[in-house]
């Protein structure tokens, strides 16, 4: 970004921020356009947001999905990752019809967000602690940390309650619970109870862990997760998991079914790794020999309603005949 464009952004942002400060001083009062507002005490301070915005923007892709689930009308453009050309295919396509994507991660494009002109921003990248104050001059912003390693649904329910959208959130939770119950009933009826694991390959090491939401789906279905996913030995799978060298691959022998993140087009499956193909310990694993390696769109890893639904469908298709 050139210095002149930075100065222009700051000038417009300051002007926008001044208008916002004049119109967001109390809960449930008339907003700038005559609508109601809601004041919320968050970990980033007190924020005042419109109860019925007309052009909401999700700062990260998962935020866009959450906005859709909670029934917010979207701004005409929404962020996608820099390495993507469109929104994930498992997102609700009808709600995204006519919505244009623009790159906003890992490089943040605040100037373009200002040009889009949202009237509400949902920002899940709360680990960037200085980001909230950069967004509030553009539009009223609700910021939270969606990537703290916990169950994303906890944050989802909290923000839905804060924003007065509990009914919409509960509708999704109920639908998801019903789908889990249906798949679990089918698994039980077929006597299908494999040991499962989420496995990745990075820098010459095989990683077994629960950074992805896959372990949430596994647990919801009552599946046995490989103990290798429990790095601290507390009996609960965690994001750190276990890293294995190429000589330790035999420790994966007890795993019946492997799930692994892949690109949107399905490329990048762990079984395509040449280093693993050349390792006899890897090729001898029961899961590999039996073709029980199943890819899921890696963007599902980060936690959102459609991602959770999508991963449940991947697991269902993998396990049920």
From TrEMBL:
Keywords: Signal, Transport
A Pfam family it matches: Peripla_BP_2
InterPro entries per the UniProt record, alphabetical: ABC_transptr_periplasmic_BD (IPR002491), Bact_iron-sidero_bind (IPR051313)
Residue ranges constituting the Fe/B12 periplasmic-binding domain according to the UniProt record: 55-321
Signal peptide: 1-30
Transport found in the keyword field: yes
Subcellular location: Cell envelope
Similarity comment: family membership: Belongs to the bacterial solute-binding protein 8 family.
Protein name: ABC transporter substrate-binding protein
């Amino acid at each position: 970004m050139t210095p002149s464009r930075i100065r222009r952004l700051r000038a417009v942002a300051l002007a926008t921020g001044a208008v916002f400060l004049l119109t967001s001083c109390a809960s449930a009062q008339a907003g700038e356009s005559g609508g109601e507002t809601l004041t919320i005490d968050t970990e980033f301070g007190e924020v005042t947001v419109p109860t019925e915005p007309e052009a909401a923007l999700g700062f990260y892709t998962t935020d866009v999905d959450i906005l859709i689930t909670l029934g917010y009308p979207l701004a005409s453009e929404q962020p996608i990752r820099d390495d993507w050309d469109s929104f994930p295919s498992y997102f609700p396509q009808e709600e995204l019809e006519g919505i244009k994507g623009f790159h906003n991660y890992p490089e943040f494009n605040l100037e373009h967000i200002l040009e889009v002109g949202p009237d509400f921003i949902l920002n899940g990248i709360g680990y960037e602690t200085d980001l909230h104050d950069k967004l509030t001059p553009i539009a009223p912003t609700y910021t939270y940390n969606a990537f703290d390693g916990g169950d994303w649904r906890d944050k989802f329910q909290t923000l839905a309650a804060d924003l007065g959208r509990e009914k919409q959130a509960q509708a999704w939770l109920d639908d998801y619970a019903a789908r889990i119950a249906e798949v679990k009933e089918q698994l039980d009826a077929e006597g299908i109870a494999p040991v499962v694991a989420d496995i990745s390959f990075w820098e010459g090491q095989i990683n077994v862990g629960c950074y992805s939401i896959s372990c949430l789906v596994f647990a919801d279905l009552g599946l046995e997760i490989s103990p290798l996913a429990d790095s601290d030995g507390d009996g609960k799978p965690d994001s750190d998991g276990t890293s294995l060298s190429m000589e330790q691959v035999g420790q994966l022998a007890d795993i019946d079914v492997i799930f692994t993140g892949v690109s949107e087009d399905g490329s990048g499956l762990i079984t395509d790794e040449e280093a693993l193909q050349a390792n006899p310990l890897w090729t001898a694993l029961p899961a590999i020999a039996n073709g029980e390696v199943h890819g899921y769109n890696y963007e599902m890893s980060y936690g959102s309603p459609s991602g959770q639904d999508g991963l449940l469908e991947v697991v269902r298709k993998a396990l049920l005949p």
